[in-house]
Amino acid sequence: MPEISFIIPVYNVERWLRRCVESIQAQTIENLEIILIDDGSTDASAAICDELASGDGRIRVIHKENGGQGLARSCGLEIATGEYVAFVDSDDTVTPDMAKSNLMLAKEQDADIVVFGYRECYCDEKGGVKKEGGVYLPEFSEPMNRRQFWENCARINTAFATMRIYRRAYLEKYAIRFNEGRMGEDALFLAYVHDAPFNRMAFNRQVCYIYDIRPGSTMTSFQPVYFDEEHERARVQIERIFLKNEPTQGAFDRMLAVRGANSAHEALKQLAFAKKKLGFRERRGMIKQFCARPRVEKSLETCRMAWIGEKWKRLAIWLMKKKRYGLALRYYDALQVVRQIRNQMMQSGKRQR
Q1: How far apart are the C-alpha atoms of 295 and 263, rounded to whole Å?
Q2: 3, 31 in Cβ contact below 8 A?
Q3: Sheet strands (E) in the chain
Q4: Alpha-carbon distance 113 to 294, whole Å?
Q5: Long-range contacts for 131-134 (Cβ within 8 Å, ≥24 apart)?
Q6: How do residues 189-221 score in pLDDT, each as one tens digit?
Q7: CB count, 10 Å around CB of 291?
Q8: Cβ–Cβ < 8 Å for 51, 96
């Protein structure tokens, strides 16, 4: 049995796929498997998967029709054989000791889940590094049981499935899989993970994952599925799981209010990315409709501005709170222009040097 299975969904990432797989091949342990799920790629990604597998017996490839990242990951789980599993996005990389350091913790502490740190990296369209972003480490160092997790979950990252390893037997025992949605599948998967009775969660306060943010990714482009009813149902389900595990009544009120307000902010950011595709009136109507959803409306009503950290985000949320959707959209459109100019100046300065 491999000590760990790396599951990588692959879709049209011919420029980044090799470096992702190479970072896993460079791990300081050899007893691992790499599962590449070609999710109906239309570029050279499928051929690259096969080429990589031909040169390394630890790599397994599945070719399937396009169904989204969540289904691709679940497909990988069906064939994984490692004691633990990890999910890596095909345009990201991991550090050389990612597997060794997290497996050591998992086994020492008999943990079903290990949470580790990551670093952001902003890349250009060719994969070159434009600038390094923030470093995010777990706040905790001592392991937690399930009760302790729910008492402290507001201070633990519950958004990224990739910044953890999981005991495969635990996921199998409780039939935990990703949903069929094409966006936001990480948060719902983690809600299911934390809802099931895990034995122990460990924390590794090291950077083990490099999270690349690039043009055209879901983080930097308009994603219409963000506004789908199916996506909203997933958000509501996540909220229900949080409320079900609330240690005391009202303990999660602030956290859920901030989550809801942040989802409105994300919708606003998405619509700023859509400036060239959709007219202003249509985008204003979309953000108004999004903020009228019961979960979001309640969050905007109850969220205090002091709970929102960044001042620029606080203003956007305040405008939506006051139902000034047009102003909020113009404000965020202007922010996007400023960021584009700043990035261009940074790139120009690098070329001159």
Answers
A1: 10
A2: yes
A3: 4-10, 32-39, 59-64, 84-87, 93-94, 113-123, 129-136, 164-167, 201-213
A4: 33
A5: 131/346, 133/211, 133/213
A6: 999 999 999 999 999 999 999 998 765 555 557
A7: 22
A8: no
